[in-house]
Amino acid sequence: MLANLINGISLGSVYAIIALGYTMVYGIAKMLNFAHGDVIMVGGYVAFCSISYLGWPPILAVLASVVVCTILGIVIEGLAYKPLRNATSLAVLITAIGVSYFLQNAALLIWTSNTKVFPNVFANLPAIQLGGTQIAPVTVITVLANIVIMIALTLFTSRTKMGKAMRAVSEDKGAATLMGINVNRTISMTFAIGSGLAAIAGVLLCSAYPTLMPTTGAMPGIKAFTAAVFGGIGSIPGAMLGGVLLGVIEIFGKAYVSTQLSDAIVFAVLIIVLLVKPTGLLGHKIREKV
Amino acid sequence: MGTMLRVEDLHVYYGSIHAIKGVSFEVNEGEIVTLIGANGAGKSTTLNTVGGLLKARSGKISFMEKDLHGIGADKVVAQGMALCPEGRRVFQHMTVLENLEMGAYTRPSSEVADSLEKVYQLFPRLKERYRQVAGTLSGGEQQMLAMGRALMSKPKLMMLDEPSMGLAPILVKQIFSIIEDMNKQGTTILLVEQNAQMALSVANRAYVLETGRITTSGDAKELAESEEIKKAYLGG
Fold first, then answer.
1. At A30, which CATH number?
2. Which tens digit of pLDDT belongs to each residue from B82-104?
3. Cβ–Cβ of A171/B94 closer than 8 Å?
4. Closest to B92 (Cβ–Cβ): which among A164, A171, A181?
5. Is residue A228 part of a domain?
6. Beta bridge partners of B25
7. Total of domains in chain A
8. pLDDT (tens digit per residue) in A30-80
9. What pTM does this model have?
């Protein structure tokens, strides 16, 4: 029971970190970046190559992964999404799906379809005993990383000038422009942060489930998107809550109901929540003021 | 007193609709100038084009002897021009203080406290409510916040788009007296209003817009007395 709960929170923490990328980009650019899951995969591969081929220490590998994904995020936004700033949301959505396929197929060309076994980067750390349950170091680190990221992002958006500017842009781009805020640069910054977080999520995901393929990011990406909607898309605490709940529901579903049906249970819960509260658990009510 | 803002032969289109058809006007340092006219005459379009939110097809806009052609709205603020937009558009989910801080986005943080103090002097109500979320303010308070926010950039020229819209008459009076105060403290004002009577009572000069063209211009007090204007815009 306790072991399942901890596993659920850990898996949910990974979802939460990915969901943050979805939710921040949605909040500010009002678009669903379906390529976000594939950035995770790229992050995983970069860390894998740094450790297995270059022999870098894990910390350096994580750093390399974050740098590459951050740049990748900025490039994707600049090349694929920025030209569509005034296009219909459907066009942007289709482009995002296109970018997703592009990344998966590029990975297929570079790293082939052979499954890579992700090295155990936390092998030197001891496991923790908690009431007779053994907790793997990767689990502890994932949960801690999630908490640190949530606190850091909350402080960033509430205390810093750039963070406040992001909130201003997410509310009203025109009014933000009138303040002298460069909207394009702010959106680009959001993609950078989201993609950097995706890299961290990629390393954590591959450490917990050490198989790496070009499609590795797809399913966690969709689950994290679900988590973001579940918690209320556009809301940072919502992404956290949605991610963790989703992870716990998934693991409990696997443990007590059925391994095959666990995903179905996850999505059923989502549907029920959205029927009761269409804006998600912590979503803003949409007010129309005339 | 030099010319601060000069607009020459401005043409603006919405797609194929020719909204502004050759508008020219100027605002001198220290003045309150108002653009009045009926709904759809092109007042807001003119203001948004000057502010950089819309692009002109042709024409020239110069501010403090500097050509503003091709300068985006986010760069216009740093030049010393602030636009307080129609419908206020305060950041609803941010606090009063955060809204004001956003107004000072282009300025060094060392100067923010000083401007904040000045804004609070003009709008004591904002100081009382500085931690409140802007969406919970009343319409009048939101208008004050929008004006205070625009003032935070320390503009030489403040453009106000329909500041009286949707406000009770007593609040309208208060807002206009604050506009006069801002002007006395050295901010030049370009005011767009449907409430022509109020606008003419505070302005030095006025331009009347009709379907994208300036039809009349002159001293605000004289225009307020003219039979034509009275009939068309002042209800008798």
1. 1.10.3470
2. 999 999 999 999 999 999 999 99
3. yes
4. A171
5. yes
6. B7
7. 1
8. 899 999 999 999 999 999 999 999 999 999 999 999 999 999 999 999 999
9. 0.89
